[in-house]
Amino acid sequence: MVITELYLKNFGKFAEQHFYLHDGLQVISGENEFGKSTLHAFIRAMLFGLERGRGRAAAKDGFTRYEPWENPGYYAGVMRFTCGGRNFRLERDFSRAAKKASLVCEDDGEELSVERGDLNMLLGGLTPGLFDSTISVGQLRAEPGQELFDALENHAVNYFVTGSGEIDIAGTFQLLKEKRRQAARALQEEEAARTAEQEKILQECRYLERDMKALQDEFAEKQTRLNALENVDDTGIKAGSSAKNLFFMGSAGVLAGFAGFLWSRFISGRTLAASAFSVAVIAGAIALAGVLLLIAGGIAVCRAGRKKGRPKADEERVKQLQWETEHIQAEWKEKMIRCGNLREQCEETEVSDVQKNLLRRQQALEMAEEELRKAVQETGNQTAGLMQEKASAIFASVTEGAYLKIMLDGERHISVWDGTRRIPAERLSRGTIEQIYLAVRLAAAEAVLEEPMPLILDDVFAFYDDKRLLAALKWLSGQGKQVIIFTCHKREEEIVKREIYR
């Protein structure tokens, strides 16, 4: 494919502007704000269309950036190109209201359909991603805070493993790593929350157990006091019973003594004086014993009466103590049930559903990274050798043999071989790193694209010295394809006129 004409009807700062191109090497130079980036963007927009972003992205998308400065409602252009020995005219209207595209073969007037894939067929499967990662080459860019050689190694891994930079292998690994870190942090936070919740529950259990111990001590103290009062009542009852027994025995003794005295008087009338005297003595002794028992019983009755009166005085206190002990028992049982429920709740918080999901997510990310690593290894073994060979040949040419080979080791670190020693990328100059980057991109274009496509270089030679710039331009001019160089310097144009087309 060779682009022959760019007609910017109304695109960015350009209106009704024609730019004619030819096969081989050519340079479009101009100062800053000349419109080089606009021309570059126009080529891409003509090949793949220009989509408008949504939401906040619309403010910074290509559609908005290159919307015509004047008459923005009219937003269109034409590109002529040759492909397979035939001439084609591609026209697009980018405006919001009348967005459309037409493709015509100018040799026979045949109308082709962009919507049905005729343009894609002519482009040989070139996608916007492949365009950006192969034939459209700019300077190597590093992320803020990233070393340039790190950016080079990231790009080299992507190209050597996949054959192009359309799939960001290094970025994918970094994304998986960050996702695993996020899952690990979330898991730690969830574990901390679970531990805090368990500690809160256990602390409440300790408070309940402390209260239960205090209730037990209080119950024991009140029970002791209650037992003492109840023992006093029992003693009074027993004392009253003993007094009644003594009184009964005393009364019986007095009666027995009186009966004996009467018997002695009866027998004394019958001249049984000795026997009567003995009976009288015995009866008197019995009577005396009965009197003593009566006295003892009376004393016991008095004491029993005093002891039986004491529980009656403390009857309200006994009832109060009984109510308090029952209340303590009920409160203790309630706290025991609450403590048991809390311990069950604590056991149930061991592994939450959120933690299980986070664990599964972490395992899935680890598995994905491992499988991707295996796939990269298998694919890399198939493509890395070919890519390194192609890139090394280009690199040797543009450096005029100063370096012979580009190498990527098992740790995905890039280095170069100068015929004597192996030099890591971090020791190389910015210009040499840019040359490696260009060589890798061009090697990927050769490996991936089915048909030769125009190579668009946008300020890629800013860090080349004159000697290496000449070598690079000579190599590019000998590739048999269209090369369009955009630059803000005159150096490239002068070297091409003086050394290439002299």
- Full CATH superfamily name of the domain at 1-126 and 449-502: P-loop containing nucleotide triphosphate hydrolases
Indicate the low-confidence ranges by residue numbers: none
Major sheet size, sense and barrel closure = 6 strands, antiparallel
What's the alpha carbon Rg, rounded to whole Å? 56 Å
Q: Total number of β-strand segments?
A: 13
Summarize model confidence as the mean pLDDT. 81
| Biggest sheet, spatial arrangement of strands | 2-1-4-5-6-7
β content, as a range?
A: 5-15%
- Shape verdict: elongated
Structural class per helix/strand content?
alpha+beta
- Give the end-to-end Cα distance, rounded to a whole number of Å: 26 Å
Explained architecture:
This protein has a domain at 1-126 and 449-502: 3-Layer(aba) Sandwich (Rossmann fold). The radius of gyration is 56 Å and the shape is elongated. The chain is α+β, with helices and mostly antiparallel strands and 502 residues long. The protein has helices at residues 36-48, 62-65, 118-122, 128-135, 148-162, 169-268, 273-313, 315-348, 353-398, 430-448, 466-477, 491-500, and strands spanning 2-11, 14-20, 25-29, 76-83, 86-93, 100-105, 111-112, 136-137, 405-408, 414-417, 422-424, 455-458, 483-487. Strand 4 (76-83) and strand 5 (86-93) form a beta hairpin. It has 12 helices and 13 strands. The strands form 3 sheets. It has a 6-stranded antiparallel β-sheet with strand order 2-1-4-5-6-7. It has a 4-stranded parallel β-sheet with strand order 3-13-12-8, sandwiched between helices. The model has no long low-confidence stretch (mean pLDDT 81).
